[in-house]
Amino acid sequence: MKKMILMLAVLTLTSNAAFCNEDETELMTASPEYVMSLLAQCKNDAAEDEITPAEMNNYLLTCINDELEVSYYKPIKTLPKEG
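Now predict its structure.
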């Protein structure tokens, strides 16, 4: 009887672990227009924060990715080209 209870407990724990992974949200890719709007917003923030030219690219990439994360979008690896 103890073996049966133990087996049932193990089965319950493993099935719960399997269902926990299903709750993860798959991140979407943000539209180029949205990323460009974030770039403009982050440039304004950089001016207010007095970011130096040497720090600018890193600051902008971090800023954009922070905003994308909050909105459940995939992060970007490089800054978008303005054009």
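The longest helix spans residues 2-20.
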